[in-house]
Amino acid sequence: MQFEGKAIRVQEIDSGFYELTFDLNNEPVNKFNQLTLGELKEAVTQLGAVEDIKGVLFSSAKESFIVGADITEFSSLFGQGEEGLIAGLLETHAIFNAVEDLPCPTVTAINGLALGGGFELCLATDYRVMGKNAKIGLPEVKLGINPGWGGIVRLPRLIGIDNAHEWICTGVEKRAAAALKDGAVDAVVEQDQVRDAGISLLRQCAAGKFDYAARRTVKQSAVKLNQIEQMMAFETAKGMIGAKAGPHYPAPLQAVKTIQKSCGMSRDKAILAEAQGVAKLASGPVVKALVGLFMKDQYVKKVSRGYEAKAEKVKQAAVLGAGIMGGGVAYQSASKGVPILMKDINESAIQLGLDEANKLLAGQLKRGRIDAAKMATTINRIRPTLSYGDFATVDLVVEAVVENQKVKAMVLAETEQHIADDAVLASNTSTISINALAKSLKRPENFCGMHFFNPVHMMPLVEVIRGEKTSDATIARTVAYASAMGKTPIVVNDCPGFLVNRVLFPYFGGFSGLLQGGADFRQVDKVMERFGWPMGPAYLLDVVGIDTAHHADEVMAAGFPERMSHEGESIIDRMFSLERFGQKNNKGFYRYELDRKGKQAKLPDDTVDSLIDGVVGASREFDDQEIIERMMIPLCIETVRCLEEGVVASPAEADMAMIYGIGFPPFRGGVFHYLDEMGLAAFCDMAAKYAELGPLYQPTAQMQQMAAAGTTYLNNTAN
Questions:
Q1: Do 488 and 545 have their domain in common?
Q2: Catalytic pick from 93, 165, 248, 451?
Q3: Would you identify the family this protein belongs to, as annotated (predicted)?
Q4: Model confidence pLDDT, tens digit, residues 298-325
Q5: What digits encode the pLDDT tens for the residues 463-498?
Q6: Statement to judge: residues 447 and 568 lie in one domain
């Protein structure tokens, strides 16, 4: 037989041996959309009817195998209710079962990424051959759901319950060596040998060397565990996985429960249990929020690709100012393959920057992420210098000197004299106006902001700030460089604090107001952490640095005096005057000591209450809901102001900036998802309760109009 579709083709390799190749037309990757699933069903039906068929190889004509389901199509099933979703899942199960039930041995040649539904198809075949550079996994928990096309059923039977818990409940992508060790694949070969190795394995099965039927029996039968083994396999896992996932993310714990329920069943009953487990999760709010974030992330990447298509590639970068930040920028650039000059005015700063890069690389080496050769290659891409001698060849310069407008302006003007006329200058500033800094330059069109978040190697967001005179070409090159560094760039327009810090300081204003009203900062931290923030506002200020926050607070107060200025001494002012800078000097709202792993551990400090007396009002009890409302209302309103003023181009970009920049709780979907889910009318009513607290708590006129009209920001779309 021969089959030629828009996503799949089937050809006979040799007498009785067939190859089913995934090659989705006009797409860079293969994914399971309705077209692909429909063609797979038709092709497998035809293969099942071939007389004397000896074997089928499943392969890909693209660099990846199959990256998963097309979430834009699949997520539409979530709105059909539990019964509709279960029916839809079972339709796909029938296709994958038909693959598993073909009257001949089957092998998957995994040449690249095989994730989610892509890996679940691999599990439906009898054997899997994997290329050394490929990755496989079931990342569904990251969208708040569980594998729904057989992963819950087949993977535990292949690799054991404990391994399956780790794979499924973490959603981790596994490299070839780890996959082979756990038994998820049967062979690992060089990339260019994957197809040939798969065909060879098929021939050996047909010759009787391997018992593929026995393999199927294991996958389709109940797992044999006695009562003690059941308890050891599941009850301990429930406690550990539930505690690690926390109360806001039910998918990992649900996965354990579904594996437990289904492992004692035969395939067809187990598949129904799997579908029911997925449907139970899909009806909850977390899935909607996390799938929405996935869609927004795809939209943000699409926007970035639009810029990158117009940009010249950065072949040589430079960073001004070594130190911790400069060393972090240099490490990130070098580790992603872009050579970088690291300039400072003294040797000690250069050494600090190199030490930072070496420390990060040593960590990668220790964890097995790189080998010694890769470490040496990366560090050799960083060239320290005390002069501008080689700057004529640089495509883009990141200025990362001290956060002082006069110093930055002087350094930028000096640097401009030593770089090519078309080179881009970018300032890594968190608060200083790009328009103001541009006044010192002869070519302001080649200048923009490039705000990295600390620590550079961990924080995914980069704000690319457009000034009044910044050219499109400058923005495009800077976005392209940020993407090449593995970051998520979001373009914003210049204003005090740009986007993230502008939104963050009203949040801190809400915190300051609570303390003035007599709240205990420890309670506020605990409440906001239970709400979903990775750290409460007091702890966050300690991590940011009270000195940094104090400077930014002054910038924000000057920029938006009607909302962000304050009379008298604030809590940030008091902590700054006491030189309690947080983790920088091991004392802030909390005290800090290094733990056994060399990380700063947060510890209570009983001296703080007396030190902040007078700034904190007479103690009073606040209920959790009031704390949440007084913290969240200013943040949400300021984010909306940034959208209305054009500081950020879309709700999607704003939501992703909040997630990636300040750790907005992902399960709440971002600020605009949070507002849409609550309803603007309900939000405005909530804000009205705090009208006496001032302009930070006053929704904009447009918000009130939208509330009256019942409209939303996202309208169920990415942007």
A1: no
A2: 451
A3: In the N-terminal section; belongs to the enoyl-CoA hydratase/isomerase family.
A4: 999 999 999 999 998 999 999 999 888 9
A5: 999 999 999 999 999 999 999 999 999 999 999 999
A6: no
